[in-house]
Each structure stands twice: as C-alpha cells, then as structure tokens.
Write a structure and sequence with these properties.
With 264 residues, this protein is an alpha/beta fold. Helix content is 44%, strand content 12%. A 7-stranded parallel β-sheet has the order 3-2-1-4-5-6-7, with helices on both faces.
Length: 264
C-alpha cells in the first residue's frame, strides 16, 4: 500500500525529524504540505528550510506546498490549516511534529525559566497540535478517512535522572508533552469511532541539527547514544501505509522499537 493521491501535512518540516518524515511520506507517494518558520535557506538559526525540504520531496515526483507558520501564534496556525485545505482540497495525514525549544533556556531550572517562554512552549507544543486537530478533523470525519500522528517524548511520562541545567530538560517541555500525550489518548477514543487513528510517535533522543549544534552549549549532553532521524521517519511512513493502522489507535509507538520489530 502506498500513499499516492493522499495529502500529508507535517509541521516543523523545514529540518529535523519533521523533514525526514515529510520526505519518507513523499517517498511513499504522498503529496506533502510543509510547514515551519524558516522559508528560505540561510534565514534560520539552524540548517534547513521549507524550500530545501520541498525540493527533496519533489524529487520523488510528488507535489508540495510550503506554508510559513509560527506555531506560537494562534492566528498563524488557523491560517495554515485554512491554506492547506484551500491549496490541496483535503488533508489525509496530519503529523503534529513541530517542537518549540527556547534556544537559551531548554535546560534551565524552573525558577530561572522566563515566564514568556512558558507561553511559547504551551502555545507551540500543546495548543498548536490541539488547534490543528480541531481545524482538520471535521473534514476527515466527513470524508471518513484520515490519520493523526502526534509526536511525543519520553519526558511526557517520566523524568530524566539529570537536574535541569545539568543535562536534564527544563520542566516546561515535559509538562507540555504530557499534555499532548493525554490529549492524544483522549482524542483517540473519539476519532476511533470514525475509523481515524490518533497515534503517539516517540522518536526517542534523536540527533537533529538542533541537538547537534546546541547540546554542548545548552547542557553538555552526550549525543553518542542519540537515534538517527531516519528511525522516526521510517516508523511514520510504515504506520501510514500499515494495513491494520487502527490497531495503533491511542497507542504510543516508540520509533526504535517499532523499526526493529518491523525490520525496517
């Protein structure tokens, strides 16, 4: 089963895990709507852009749309969803991947964490996925077809042994990912009635461009055990083409385990 004729929206797809997932879905034949803040090469804080990701996806003969969007802003998220429908007619697959990280505070202890950053973490990492589902789920239900994948983290349900500031992530990230986790589990009960799975995908600790650049500066994390971005991409593509995808509704798929179990 391939994804020819289907449309996938992947947030945070200018780089990192999101880009690899978008490319993996394009490889399976899906047209891809790419969304992120960085549109043009060389304009972001890290390597990668929507234009570069689109060119990579189009190499597989699919169509792409590039929607510049700041997920900390509710009006941007709503506009992205409207534009996705207007430009492509429908969205079959939603991958809420984008994760907001404060460049200077992602490993900062609670009492030093700036209040405005709490708003950014909540808006981008929790409320944006909720709003995307709120906007795009009704057309999926109407068409009786769709897949929702929300990218989660181990920090949603457990703490690292390291203190924030000494290698552990700031409390804000785990708090908002915990919200996404519970939201997805609750949503799965409602979407499952319509044959639309809501799945949590845990990439594990992954060596993205951001992690590679900032791990030393922000906390001195050892990246030698970090996963490849391709693990999450392979898992997402396999899920979207799985003949019994409803089996995964409401479940958390750990990318490394899933890839090993399915010999991907």
């Amino acid at each position: 089963m391939n994804l020819k004729g289907q449309v996938a929206l992947v947030t945070g797809s200018s780089r990192g895990i999101g880009r690899r997932i978008a490319v993996a879905l394009a490889r399976e034949g899906a047209d891809v709507i790419l969304s992120a803040r960085t549109l043009k090469p060389g304009t972001g804080d890290h390597p990668g852009s929507l234009q570069e990701a689109a060119a990579e996806c189009e190499g597989f003969g699919v169509k792409t749309a590039q929607l510049q969007c700041d997920l900390t802003k509710e009006e941007d998220v709503s506009r992205m969803c409207r534009n996705a429908i207007e430009r492509c007619g429908h969205v079959d697959i939603v991958v809420n991947n984008c994760a907001y990280f404060s460049e200077d505070q992602h490993y900062t202890p609670f009492l030093q964490f700036r209040w405005e950053n709490w708003h950014n973490y909540v808006n981008a990492n929790l409320l944006a996925p909720v709003l995307v589902c709120r906007e795009l789920l009704p057309p999926m239900i109407e068409r009786k077809h769709g897949i929702i994948i929300n990218v989660t983290s181990g920090l949603a349900t457990m703490e690292l042994p390291f203190l924030p500031g000494k290698g552990g992530a700031a409390i804000a990230y785990g708090a908002v990912k915990g919200g996404v986790h519970r939201f997805s589990q609750g949503l799965a009960k409602e979407t499952g009635v319509h044959g639309i799975p809501t799945i949590l995908l845990d990439p594990g600790y992954t060596l993205t461009e951001r992690v590679e650049k900032n791990s030393g500066r922000l906390g001195g994390l050892d990246t030698s055990q970090a996963h490849s971005m391709e693990l999450a991409a392979k898992a997402a593509a396999c899920l979207c083409t799985h003949p019994n995808i409803m089996f995964f509704n409401g479940k958390t798929v750990v990318a490394a385990d899933f890839v090993k179990e399915h010999n991907l």
